[in-house]
Design goal:
Elements (H helix, E strand, L loop, with lengths): L13 H18 L3 H7 L4 H9 L18 H12 L4 H24 L7 H4 L4 H14 L6 H6 L5
Helix pairs in contact: 1-4, 4-5
Length: about 160
Amino acid sequence: MGVGIVTCHPIFTEDHDLIRAQLRRFVDERVKPHGPKWEEAGFVPREVLREMGELGFFSLRVPEALGGAGLDARASVVLAEEVGRSTHGGFAITVLVHTDMASPHLVSLRHQAPAREVPAGRHGGKDHHRGRRHRARRRLRRGRHPHPRACATATTTC
């Protein structure tokens, strides 16, 4: 445990303690000094979120087969506790929406249908998906399912 943080509860392991120490250091060095400016501006800069992603904080519960840490719900508890220590609600909620609302759905979809690689030159690169989003919005406005083929091939119902 020699990371300077005492385990708060017996359910946490040494791995959780290491994550806690890393998160605490990140929050103390990168968030607390700038948090008031972010709260006033109403957003968290992308470079901070990108840095958190590079450090693996956004993929704690993503399976190892998909490039994540493959940890359990206790890792999410550690993450929530430490980002909450920042005392900047906008930062905390931004992080937790990424990790606990958006990511589980993306992981679930990734398990259902493996991603296809789209050659950049053939469909115009990343802008190729822009047309899909617009079609999905039109379908929603008309009262239809935004991705009928995706649900037809999924093993679960939408």
